[in-house]
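User: My collaborator sent over this chain with a note saying "see what the structure looks like." That's all I know about it. Can you take a look?
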Amino acid sequence: ISLSKAVRGSYDETINSSPSKVPLISIPNGLTADSGYSLLLGSYVLATHSTSLKILNPLRGLAFDPVGLSYLLPRLGWEFDQTSKEYSKACGVLLALTGYEANAEDMVATGLATHYIGSPYKLNILERGLSELNSFAGQALRPKPKSLYGREQNDEYDVNEDFRNVAVGNLIQHISEYDAAGADEFGCYLRDDLDEETGLYLKDKDPSITLAEDRIQMYGEVVSEFVSWGATFQDALLEPTVEGIIARLEEIAATKAGFEGKSGCEEDVMVAEQAETLVSNMKQRSPLALRTMHRLLQQGAESDETLESCMEREKTSQMRLFSKEDGDFVRWAESGKGVGLVGMKGIASTMKEKEETFSNWNHASVKEVTDDEVDEIVSDA
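Assistant: Without extra context I'll predict from the sequence alone. Here is the result:
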């Protein structure tokens, strides 16, 4: 919690910590999982082509780490007023409970990352540019008013606060291909100026004489499959219980046989296969952990919740799952099994090996988990 609040404090003065004068810039190049997201709560999160986010704790018999995800996931897309906000709760459930791995485009489309920079090698350009900027104290339009001895301190609003670190934002925008708010590398917001039919050309330009390289790549061809699946399965994912979510997804998966082999039904088959995969992933996870995370998401979505209150609840719930005698986490830890990640086999080998996942949970399915058991973990948290 302290780490998350310190990072978040780099721009959020509502957190009970001292906001940093230096904006925190994170460049997650690779997989970020669970508590690792605490490092992505700062001012700028620059996603590369290999950036991704995944929730793995239910495969360990655990719920959310105390970094505030039960607050953030139901509010995806809110911060930058993105179209994904219409499916925020569904996308939050999809990411938390099904093991879906959000890629860089998905993270920017939902505000989990602020900018997409493509190549991690742009870090060199960013470091050089930052080193040439003025210090925080030097970023001022006018000097601080002098205070004379014996006179009251002038508490007039400091106009310099509006301009400090603006150069940092401009530099990051320049090296980015696009940002979560919908601006390109030049800070231009072109979405409203694109043609409604294809979204690839400006309205005032004739597409027949527009070269391929002049197309608006950052909007016309960037698609978030994560948001698309959240929208597709929204009704199922918004079921009030985990059992209901699985049942609805199983109904969709069962339609595969009726569409398979029929012309023009390829998309229906793809949707059914995706539902089948989501159900399979959920059944691999600890039923108690899934029920706990779902309850945390429901409570975190309430309008009177704050990031800090959700982190405190996550901490209490997680500690109870950690310390539960013969609990799912203890069983997983004693088994020596992993969470299904793919790693290198041996130090000098190029062979890849996937970790074996654990399955001997205390409950065979979410149907066996009672409300009292979930209350015991989450109540008064």
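A starting point for your reply to your collaborator: The longest strand covers residues 44-48.
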